[in-house]
Specification:
The protein is an alpha/beta fold and about 450 residues long. It folds into 2 domains: about 210 residues, Rossmann fold, CATH 3.40.50.300; about 170 residues, 2-Layer Sandwich (Ribosomal Protein S5, domain 2), CATH 3.30.230. About 25% of the residues lie in helices and about 25% in strands. It contains 11 helices and 18 strands. Strands 3-2-4-5-1-6-7-8-9 form a 9-stranded mixed sheet, with helices on both faces. α8 links the parallel β12 and β13. α9 packs across α11. It is elongated and about 75 Å long. This is DNA repair protein RadA.
Length: about 450
């Protein structure tokens, strides 16, 4: 007997089960159908027909793979207020400046509200058309009337297909709306950008098939306490899927940051204890940042450990290695370790910088400001090899660093013009990093 189901019996989530009409069983076999166009040799297909068109925003084009491909569908997902709509208004402005027509559909705001934001960020252009609609059929009618080469739908969760049952933003509605817009893009050669919501876990809201339907999935990330914003590629059929574009949110809009390392190093100018520079890889992009550490005596049985911008488990592991292998006296001290400028470091290559920053503050001896540390620390105190060391050292050299401490097992050809010290364990790293070596390490 049929009954209402509110919770999926497989995944345990609520509100993900939709009622659909049964499909009548057809014949087991299907006959051949004459194709509308014959298959061609791959050498006869014109590759220029799918050439990318630059949006005019270099950091966005970097993630997309040189630009937007006509007939493609891009999904841009991010938390509320991170700046998705502001970025896309900039994109349609530059698109219109190139002599092309753009149609911006908003389902969450009125056209007047979008116009006010566009004026504040200087994103007004006569070739940009605005419409406040949430009905899929009406949106398709606007496309017929305007004939744009770029369509932006903000957001896909607010659009409703009247011919399909289901609540707005539900699984069935999102799948139907996305399928229709993908078909529109492929049949007419229109580039479509969809804005998507995210769940509290940071995943794209809606069915998982949504990410399979589109050609490109981008994640727009940012901390509410920092002005830095990052567009990260998750899926890209036309380019690398691990590129990152950097932006800065300001009062007058969102601006590109071609050199984000400057944000993380903007106040680094003197030698100070507990401070070490590092190079982390975000996708294919090398970012130079700074790790700071502070140690205070504590009378508590369990001294406090505070971590910001880093993986607390890795920091705890590095402290344990310092205490066990180098006899560092960290058990009776409060230890604070943090990144600067809102940078987040989760990869193991930041272990050596953490170890040197803590060692520096315990020895009351600064690490030179033009020294950068790269490497993973093992439980035996060894400094292990990490990926892309040559690219990291090259980025440090470009920013004026003169000394790089890297794992001894590195087999890459490193750039010249910068002093490179190869270390095999923490003892060697501490001796190479500290300005003056004290008799007793700790």
């Amino acid at each position: 007997m049929a009954k209402w189901v509110g919770r999926c019996p497989d995944c345990g989530e609520w509100g993900t089960v939709d009622e659909v009409a049964g499909v009548p069983a057809g014949p087991k076999g299907s006959g051949a159908v004459a194709p509308t166009s014959p298959a061609r040799r791959i050498t006869e297909v014109d590759a220029d027909s799918s050439a990318s068109i630059a949006t005019g925003i270099g950091e966005l084009d970097r993630v997309l793979g040189r630009g937007v491909v006509p007939g493609s569908v891009v999904l841009l997902a991010g938390e509320p207020g991170v700046g998705k709509s502001t970025l896309l208004l900039e994109a349609v402005k530059y698109w219109a400046k190139g002599g092309r027509t753009a149609l911006y559909i908003t389902g969450e705001e009125s056209a007047g509200q979008v116009r006010m934001r566009a004026e504040r960020t200087d994103a007004v252009h006569e070739n940009v058309y605005l419409a406040s609609e949430s009905d899929l059929g009406t949106i398709l009618g606007h496309v017929d009337a305007v004939s744009p080469s770029l369509l932006v739908v903000d957001s896909v969760q607010t659009v409703v297909a009247s011919a399909v049952d289901g609540v707005t933003g539900g699984v069935t509605q999102i799948r139907a709306v996305t399928t229709a817009l993908v078909s529109l893009a492929k049949n007419r050669g229109i580039a479509v950008i969809l804005v998507g919501h995210v769940t509290k876990d940071g995943a794209v809201a809606g069915p998982r098939s949504l990410e399979h339907l589109v050609d490109v999935v981008l994640s727009f990330e940012g901390d509410r306490h920092s002005s830095l914003r990052m567009v990260r590629g998750i899926k890209n059929r036309f380019g690398p899927a691990d590129e990152v574009g950097c932006f800065e949110q300001r009062d007058d809009g969102i601006h590109q940051v071609p050199d984000p390392s400057g944000i993380f190093l903007h106040q680094r100018g003197i030698d100070v204890t507990g401070s070490t520079a590092l190079v982390t890889m975000d996708g294919k992009r090398a970012l130079v940042g700074e790790i700071q550490s502070l140690a205070n005596p504590s009378t508590m049985a369990t001294p406090r450990r505070a971590v910001s911008g880093l993986d607390s488990a890795r920091v705890a592991m590095v402290l344990a290695v310092l205490q066990s292998r180098l006899s560092a006296k960290v058990g009776d001290k409060e230890i604070y370790v943090a990144t600067v400028g809102g940078m987040r470091v989760t990869e193991p290559a930041g272990d050596l910088a953490i170890a040197l920053a803590v060692s520096s503050v315990l020895n009351d001896t600064p690490i030179p400001q033009f020294t950068v540390a790269i490497g993973e620390v093992g439980l035996a105190g060894e400094v292990r090899r990490v990926s892309a060391v040559a690219r990291r050292v090259a980025e440090a050299k470009r920013l004026g660093f003169m000394h790089a401490i890297v794992p001894a097992a590195t087999d890459e050809k490193l750039p010249t013009g910068i002093k490179v010290t190869r270390v095999g364990d923490l003892h060697q790293a501490v001796r190479a990093g500290l300005v003056s070596v004290v008799a007793a390490p700790f």
